[in-house]
Amino acid sequence: MSKIDYKKKLKHLYNAPSHKPSIIEVPKMNYLMIDGNGLPEEQNFINAASTIFPLAYVIKFIEKGRHPENDYVVMPMEVQWKLDRKESGSKRYYWTMMVMQPDIINKDLLEEAITELNKKNKQLPYLSALRFDSNEEGLCAQIFHKGPFGEKMEETFDILKLELKNLGYEYEKDSHDIYFSDPRRVNPEKLKTLIRVKIWK
User: Which residue range is the domain that position 186 belongs to?
Assistant: First the structure.
């Protein structure tokens, strides 16, 4: 029996061209979430990732054990970034790390997964900070970026911003990034990221 891949099932939300943005309506969806601050290479971010994915997999296997027909591919990491722009010029990044959960998953399954991990004495650093919550972004624009983070990703973001300006849209300065590749295992030139921003006219 093949697994359900929600990236393909929700292709309009998890894919976009790289040369121009796609305009989408992002509905209310459920996520595992952890709030934090700092950069991806800092321990806060690493600890959050080391917590959210083990929980996501335990939830998946609990559901698969009861309903094999519901087996699914665990969704990629998503991060909503907020940059605190100080007048002094100093910057601090705040983020919400997320993993989308199918409609068949609920808070009760999360509690079961936490109980199961506790029985196995699995020490997850950010367990107390993790929550099950919904998020509805509404009207958004997104663009696909292939390659390293940093300056190259900023170039893709600039394409997104310029096209939105030409279309008459205002947009949030902070982005929601969806990471399809693990930078620890993938060559920087092959990293795949979706950059999403809220928009309005």
Answer: 12-27+137-201
